[in-house]
Structures are given as C-alpha cells and as structure tokens.
Amino acid sequence: AQKVTQAQTEISVVEKEDVTLDCVYETRDTTYYLFWYKQPPSGELVFLIRRNSFDEQNEISGRYSWNFQKSTSSFNFTITASQVVDSAVYFCALSEARTSYDKVIFGPGTSLSVIP
Amino acid sequence: GAGVSQTPSNKVTEKGKYVELRCDPISGHTALYWYRQSLGQGPEFLIYFQGTGAADDSGLPNDRFFAVRPEGSVSTLKIQRTERGDSAVYLCASSVSGPTYEQYFGPGTRLTVT
Fold it and tell me: Are strands B10-13 and B109-113 parallel, antiparallel or unpaired?
C-alpha cells in the first residue's frame, strides 16, 4: 500500500495565484515525521519543512504555509502569490517510528508549473 | 561550505557490467542515505548508514546491490551484473544526525545501462 499519496501529478498556475499541493499519508504509528522537499529543474532536492506527529500547529514561512491535519492524515502545502521560481517538483515524505525513522518514504511528487 | 557531491554525474555501462557510484557527504554528517529515482517518480529508499554501519539496508532491491562506508565519510554504491532496469538517477543525501533531520541531497548520478 502506498504510504504517501500525492494525487496531483501536475499543476499549472499563473504567476501570483495561490496553489495548494495535497499530501495524504498512511501509517499505523502514532509517532512519525513528515517532510516536504522541492526538486527544481536543476535536479537537487531541497528540504522545505519537517513536522512531527505531535505538532499539529500550522506553519508559515514567507509565502509558504503547511496545514497538518491528523484527522484526515493530510499534510498540505500552500504557496501564496506563486512565482516562476516556484516551478519544480514537490515531494511529500514520511518516516515512521516502527522503522526507527530510518526509512524515509517519498510520495510520487507533484510537478508545479508557474506561468508568467 | 561544500555540499554533497556525487561522482560520476553520468555513467553509461553495458548490461552485465559492474559499476561503482561514489558519494561524498557534507563534512561532519554522520548519516548517509542512498536513493534511486526513476523518471517521474519520487526517490526510492535504498540504504541508510549511521557512521560506518548500515543501519537499514532493506531498500536494496537484490543482492546485486551493495554499499559501503568504511571510514564513516565517503560511501560507494556498487552494482554487479547491471541490468537495463537499473537505469535511474542514484541520489545520495546526508544529515547531521539521522533521518528525522533535514537531508541534504547531492546532484545524483544518472546511470544508463544499455
């Protein structure tokens, strides 16, 4: 069973629009970590955020915000006032206590294109 | 400071050959990871090192794949008897302590098996 689902394969928005990338995860653990990474066209993955399962506070960092809801097993990522430089593939990832967090499971990614 | 480096950046090999892929992590990072990324997919976990030892190698697809990190720094991923299905980008990442921390990724090695 897929542990991290990113149902949106590709999204296209016009610059300055807001966009939300969905992430739904599956785990039997009560303790786990969730991550978002960005992979720009240059190829190197860049860490964006880490959240543990006990911290359900939403987080905002500049134009980026994250909405963690345990009740729906979702960890969605919103970009406000999108810019062309936001064009990239975004991955949501999960690591679980039962594997000692050793194995980080990535979702399939959402490719975001921001059109000028 | 220097980031994670991987060599070679591209490797083309014939089916059945042996290849070695190298990863040089960020200095001082004790944790090192190998992933494989196929086109249009997310990174697939292969192996995680904490220091010199493999803490979790459950992602290695079969016994043709092996990785070492003898001095707790540089790591080598070794693939024997390569198959066309091994073609992918092999990513290395390191983190200061363990998988719950931010991972810093290298640029990857694109392996093509012909």
Answer: parallel
| Per-residue model confidence (pLDDT) at position A1 | 53
Q: Is A7 an interface residue toward B (CB < 8 Å)? A: no
CB within 8 Å: A101 and B103 = no
Q: Do B48 and A103 touch (CB under 8 A)?
A: yes
Q: Omega of the bond prior to B8 within 30 degrees of 0, cis?
A: yes
Least trusted range by pLDDT, from A77-86, A90-99, B38-47: A90-99
- Chain A residues inside the 8 Å CB shell of B104: 47
Q: What is the pLDDT of residues B16-46, one digit of tens each?
A: 999 999 999 999 999 999 999 999 899 999 9
> In 3D, which of A3, A93, A2 has the Cα closest to residue A39?
A93
Tell me if chain B has a CB within 8 Å of the CB of A16: no
Residues in chain B: 114
Tally of CB atoms within 10 A around B33: 28
- Rounded Cα distance, A3 and B4, in Å: 28
Q: What are phi and psi of A98, to 5 degrees?
A: -70, -15
User: Residues of chain B whose pLDDT is less than 50?
Assistant: none
